Amino acid sequence: MELAEAMRTQHACRYYRDDPVPDAVLLRAVELARFAPNGGNRCAVRFVFVRDPALRRQLGEWYLPLWEEVAAAARNGAAAIHGAGGAAKSVQTGFTDTARTMADTDQFARRFGELPVIIVVCADLAQTHPTDTGLGRLSIVGGGSVYPMAQNLCLALRAQGVATTFTTLLVAREPEVKELLGIPGHMATACHIVAGYPARPFPRRLHRPDVSELAFADRYGSRLSAGEGAR
User: What is the pTM of this model?
Assistant: First the structure.
């Protein structure tokens, strides 16, 4: 598959077939994902592929109420909800058809524990080097050594016809998830990725903001021309 096509069609899949994903497909995806850029080439990321029905069911039981809280706030028009420590968490969406997408995600959340593979993305935070911890805001730099590899995994699966959904909601239950799966104490959970063969065709193209809204030349707000063919 051509890279641009994979990037344009690697969506958040909400409907999956029950077919298992072969080990060879998962291993191929990890083989490619490991080449993601990461600080110091320290390779802080590890993947746990959860396929045991009982384990997946438990993860699903923890996931559903987390989604229901966010969904209820979004449907009530809230801009944000408050998480641990009082930090605001946005629940606004940019969906083109919010009602349909929310309904699709409702059924996804109800079936979360039944979906073919739940991938727990783990990171050894001691192997990251966040340079923004003294800025008085949420630290995000450490994720630069984690999430590129997770995205590479999603793209490598997409190239093999496997759909994915990337979610961070379940990280709120990290202590329980780590105990359930035997994840060592020094490892953190960074996100969870559902993977499986899609029950519906991949989209031809995803809807995102125009390039002119995202890219600036020299100074913020001075738009960089999208150029022909960039849309």
Answer: 0.90
Q: Which domains occur in the chain, in start order? A: 3-214 (3.40.109.10)
- Using CB atoms within 10 Å of the CB of residue 76, give its burial: 0 to 12 exposed, 13 to 18 middle, 19+ buried: exposed
* Residue 144: closest CA among 125, 166, 163: 125
Cβ–Cβ < 8 Å for 184, 192 = no
Query: What's the rounded Cα separation, in Å, for the pair 164 and 121?
Result: 13
8, amino acid identity: R
Residues β-bridged to residue 89: 81
Instruction: Kindly tell me the burial class for residue 73, based on how many C-beta atoms sit within 10 Å of its own C-beta (0-12, 13-18, 19 or more).
Output: middle
194-219 pLDDT, tens digit per residue, is 999 999 999 988 888 888 888 999 99
Of 13, 61, 3, 17, which is closest to residue 163 (Cα–Cα)? 13
111-159 residue pLDDT tens: 999 999 999 999 999 999 999 999 999 899 999 999 999 999 999 999 9
Cα–Cα distance, 113 to 100 (Å, whole number): 22
